[in-house]
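To whoever is on call:

I kicked off a structure prediction for a single chain this morning and the downstream step that reads the tokens threw a length-mismatch warning. I double-checked the sequence; it's 97 residues and nothing unusual in it as far as I can see. Pasting both halves so you can look.
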Amino acid sequence: MTLNEKLATIQNMTLNEKLATIQTKFKSKKSRFNSFGKYNFRSAEDILEATKPFLLELGVSVTINETLEEIAGLPIMASSAILSDGESEISAVAIVG
């Protein structure tokens, strides 16, 4: 496939198809260790770093926002991620507390 053919294919992909491509090809090691729970995990930084090769290739961007809130006296961290191609976006929210 030539470069022009590849660019045309990417331009015709929907945002959901681009997300599916990223999810299929995504590789990120669990490089962090939680000594209390004794398990390995991926940090947000690890995940974001692993997505970078796909951003230019597929013409998308990722924005991450975190907010710290208090609900019933408990601290709650809400993290949102937005995947956008400039025309549409897909978002997800995770809440920890």
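Update from on-call: the warning came from a stale cache, not from the record. Cleared it. Sanity check on the structure: DSSP finds three helices and five strands in the chain.
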